[in-house]
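Please fill in the sequence for the structure shown.

STRUCTURE ENCODING:
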């Protein structure tokens, strides 16, 4: 099981914090460093948050989220080996061509280290603020991934789909060093997320799932398409060795440790878990 670290959304790291956490994780042999994003936080949220018991998000309107691709571009310049991931970008924060360009740019500047985590999105009010559509989210995600693969592999292409139509030739360059093999992770455990993972992606990403839920998803993935990978996040404060080992035994291929505090305690935790969770 590979181990990565997620820079927590509620903790807005300064430049020095990003550098320290990323370089320490790389030196310790961690597989990857991940971030996530919201572009604009609505003052009123009626959408149900899928990862809280009461359906309400814990973040506040003044939460300082870095834009994910800008953050990964910065990390590409201060690291050499560790992989760089998004966990996850809500699709309705982007249009397909902008996302293709951003992903390819990060992949090229990092030497082929991007892991692109995508979700259909849940915060409808954010999509409305951005002026982006939020209907048929699963189907839009499927079509977007098809466009990404074309943009990353073809000198120019046309696309005629349900939601996007590019009638003339369009080129999106540079193309990523990983090409069509650039890993795409789909966030969520719904049937739609599973279908998208099975047909179009590298693996599935579960957010703070218990080992029992991990085992269920492992079976679903194996039945849908052999070889799909499964990533699971947990807070560093929850990542006792028993919990981590149970997650591994349940079938996780990648464990993502979410940092709970500033860079100093995060680095201490990464050092502590590096040896214990290795192998």
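FILLED IN BY: designer on duty
SEQUENCE:
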């Amino acid at each position: 099981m590979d181990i990565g670290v997620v820079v927590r959304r509620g903790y807005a790291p300064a430049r020095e914090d990003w550098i320290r956490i990323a370089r320490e994780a790389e030196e310790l042999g961690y597989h990857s460093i991940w971030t996530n994003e919201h572009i604009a936080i609505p003052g009123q949220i009626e959408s149900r948050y899928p990862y809280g018991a009461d359906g309400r998000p814990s973040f506040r309107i003044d939460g300082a989220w870095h834009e994910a691709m800008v953050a990964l571009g910065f990390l590409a310049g201060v690291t050499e080996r560790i992989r760089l991931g998004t966990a996850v970008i809500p699709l309705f924060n982007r249009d397909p061509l902008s996302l293709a360009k951003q992903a390819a740019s990060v992949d090229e500047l990092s030497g082929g280290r991007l892991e692109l985590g995508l979700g259909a999105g849940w915060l409808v009010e954010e999509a409305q603020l951005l002026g982006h559509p939020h209907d048929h989210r699963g189907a839009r995600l499927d079509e977007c991934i098809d466009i990404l693969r074309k943009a990353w592999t073809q000198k120019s292409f046309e696309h005629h789909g349900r939601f996007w139509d590019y009638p003339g030739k369009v080129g999106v360059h540079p193309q990523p060093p990983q090409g069509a093999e650039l890993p795409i992770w789909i966030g969520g455990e719904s049937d739609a997320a599973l279908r998208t993972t099975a047909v179009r992606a590298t693996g599935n990403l579960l957010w703070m799932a218990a080992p029992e839920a991990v085992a269920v998803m492992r079976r679903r993935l194996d039945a849908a398409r052999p070889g799909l990978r499964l990533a699971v996040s947990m807070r560093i404060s929850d990542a006792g060795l028993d919990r981590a080992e149970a997650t591994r035994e349940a079938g996780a291929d990648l464990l993502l440790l979410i940092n709970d505090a500033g860079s100093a305690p995060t680095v201490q935790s990464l050092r502590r878990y590096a040896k214990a969770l290795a192998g």
